[in-house]
């Protein structure tokens, strides 16, 4: 059976000579991986982190790895792809999703929230340096944790006041909260520890080092 669906790219891995496996999030399938045939002239830019694609998915009840074909860009994300800082942020965000949301998981509303977050970042012209912090806090809500300040306090250390300000401000105000690079990076690590605790898994986000350098 073939279905047309939207997929958010979290990661991809090489599979043989002419194929890759794309690790995705979708409304129809949740967190699922698909086999995609690629050639030498295939546009690998299709599979950049957090790209939102249209794809024809072929379901096969006899196979654990279904196939996706006819892939095309659903939203061009020009505001992200033309900005080094936003690109790095999407690398971080996709890696967090890839490690936190386990293959096979289906969280109601997660795809819709994630898609809105991507398009919001794409549309922001400036003042987005705090965006990934809000993304992490909202991810906890999307996963059903609904953190309170009391929940996060054991992980926040000396940054509890700043995290409180982020949680209590509305979205536009939170983006404008004045945080230096060191504080922003520390808060990011604090929230990741909170997510690790609640997902009972190690979230080793390699792109955090790049993000830390850019927002130092």
**pLDDT below 50 for ≥5 consecutive residues: which ranges?**
none
How many individual helices?
A: 9
Mean of all residue-level pLDDT scores: 91
Strand content: 15-25%
* Helix fraction by DSSP (H/I, runs of at least 4): 40-55%
Instruction: List how many beta strands DSSP finds.
Output: 5
Which structural category fits the helices and strands?
alpha+beta
Tell me the span between the first and last alpha carbons: 49 Å
Let me know the largest β-sheet.
5 strands, mixed, barrel
Oligomer: single chain
Number of domains: 2
Rounded radius of gyration (Å): 18 Å
Strand order of the largest sheet: 1-2-3-5-4
Could you state the order of secondary-structure elements as H and E? EEEEEHHHHHHHHH
Descriptive tags:
216 residues, alpha+beta, OB fold (Dihydrolipoamide Acetyltransferase, E2P), five-stranded mixed beta barrel, 9 helices, 5 strands
Please explain how this structure is put together.
The structure is a single chain. The protein has 216 residues and is an alpha+beta fold. The chain folds into 2 domains: 2-75, Nucleic acid-binding proteins (OB fold (Dihydrolipoamide Acetyltransferase, E2P), Beta Barrel), CATH 2.40.50.140; 78-214, no CATH class. It is built from 9 helices and 5 strands. It has helices at residues 78-81, 84-100, 110-123, 131-142, 149-156, 160-168, 171-176, 181-199, 208-214; strands at residues 2-15, 19-26, 30-37, 52-58, 66-75. The protein has a 5-stranded mixed beta barrel. Strand 2 (19-26) and strand 3 form a beta hairpin. Helix 3 runs antiparallel to helix 4 and helix 4 packs parallel to helix 8 (181-199). The radius of gyration is 18 Å and the shape is globular. The relative contact order is 0.13. The mean pLDDT is 91.
